[in-house]
Design goal:
It is a single chain. The chain has about 400 residues and is an alpha/beta fold. It has 2 domains: about 210 residues, Rossmann fold (3-Layer(aba) Sandwich), CATH 3.40.50; about 160 residues, 3-Layer(aba) Sandwich (Rossmann fold). The strands form 3 sheets. A 6-stranded parallel β-sheet has the order 3-2-1-4-5-6, sandwiched between helices. Strands 9-8-7-10-11-13 form a 6-stranded parallel β-sheet, sandwiched between helices. β2, α2 and β3 form a beta-alpha-beta unit. α1 packs parallel to α2 and α9 runs parallel beside α10. The chain is globular. The N and C termini lie far apart (about 55 Å).
């Protein structure tokens, strides 16, 4: 067989971060012809990441429009990708995670009978509306996909339970750890001088999910305001998403609050540097839940469910939801109780070791018969004790 044409498709910043190590690994392997397609579901933040990792897409669909709906994103991605597949005829496409771009690309590939490889497969909350639409997106990709790359043993169990055949599953670890290690070794982010020079404890905040818009986000912001007012040795660095519904609430509650820094969305290198400097983080971001443990940074997860319970079981993450009092008390405990903080900051990282991209490339070689040897599986340092999704207990 001639070189295998592998087409990596992404449209948002988190996808690009997690796919970048795979794209780079494919480019360095002569057995594969690597092609990159950006749907640009999110334009500006996606471009930041592609520039950071020196990735130039072969095709850029540029589908982003103001106030776009899920239906519009899906329609534009389906139409654009159909044409790309007809023209380029890839042997397999790679999609990452659970975005609308990932689902639309999978559906478009199915219509053209193109194989699909799913990076970060098998995450579940078992609630199709939480997170929305991500939970259903990833379930549907699992049904239509051909090769599955779960990051952890728990995610593999979810795939097996949904009927995926064991021979189509390759346990790889999470590529976000590959990406973060590369950035820590190769690039320095630019932080605001006030955060560089401060001797105070920095709390990194990043929240943007649909289910947290409105009252939940207002509750979180009120809790943050109380923390800033009570703890004079704390600086709160809030990376504010560009969504107007996020900005309206955040600026409405936290503008002019002392030691609260409302930051424009940060490039990835700067975000990693700020995370490394942080005392702990409050977030609904899936990526930060995975990255923070690698840096010894506890994560308070602003959600009622998580598809990443491994961190909760390992002890480096805690689900706190969005109730004002609960968020405040959880953060205050870490600020007051040195023993509680130490337990979370020293917990083992269960998500990756920096070798996920290479495992994915070797898995593709095995899948296409280029080698008879399956890649060695990722062995996490900490594993979830059971297969149940984790939820905040009311």
């Amino acid at each position: 067989m001639s070189r295998i044409k592998v087409m990596s498709i992404f449209g948002t910043r988190p996808e690009a971060i997690k796919m970048a190590p795979v794209v780079k690994a494919l480019e360095q392997d002569a057995r594969f012809e690597s092609r990159v397609v950006a749907t640009a579901q999110h334009r500006e933040m996606l471009d930041q990441v592609m520039g950071l990792f020196e990735i130039v897409p072969d095709r850029d669909l540029g589908i982003m429009q103001a106030n776009q709906t899920l239906t519009e994103i899906t329609q534009r991605a389906l139409g654009g990708l159909e044409q790309v597949f007809l023209e380029e005829r890839p042997h397999i496409i790679l999609v990452q995670g659970d975005t609308t771009t990932a689902f639309a690309a999978t559906l478009a590939a199915f219509y053209q009978k193109v194989a699909v490889g799913h990076v970060e497969a098998g995450l579940r909350t078992d609630d199709i509306y939480n997170p929305f639409p991500e939970e259903m997106n990833r379930r549907l990709i699992s049904v239509l996909g051909d090769v599955h790359f779960p990051p952890t043993e728990l995610s593999r169990k979810h795939l097996l339970a949904s009927g995926v055949k064991p021979q189509h599953i390759y346990l790889t670890g999470n590529t976000v750890i590959d990406a973060m290690q590369h950035i820590l070794g190769a690039a320095q982010g630019a932080l605001p001088p006030a955060l560089v020079e401060t001797k105070n404890r920095v709390l990194l905040v990043e929240t943007h999910r649909r289910e947290n818009l409105g009252r939940p986000m207002e509750n979180v912001c009120k809790a943050l305001k109380r923390l800033a007012e009570e703890f004079e040795d704390v600086e709160i660095a809030f990376s504010v998403h560009r969504n107007p519904k996020v900005r309206e609430v955040v600026y409405g509650v936290l503008t002019d609050v002392p030691r609260v820094h409302l930051l424009e969305p940060m490039d990835y290198a700067s975000l990693v540097q700020l995370m490394k400097k942080s005392y702990f983080t409050l977030t609904d971001s899936g990526g930060i839940q995975e990255e923070a443990p690698s840096l010894g940074v506890p994560a308070l997860v602003l959600r009622t469910t998580t598809e990443r319970p491994e961190g909760v079981d390992a002890g480096n993450a805690r689900l706190v939801g969005t109730d004002e009092e609960t968020v405040y008390e959880a953060a205050a405990q870490l600020l007051k109780d040195a023993a509680a903080y130490k337990r979370m900051s020293q917990a083992a990282n269960p998500y990756g070791d920096g070798g996920a991209a290479q495992r994915i490339v070797q898995a593709l070689a095995h899948h296409f018969g280029l080698t008879e040897e399956r890649p060695a599986e990722f062995i996490p340092r900490a594993a979830a004790p059971n297969g149940a999704a984790h939820h905040v207990v009311a």
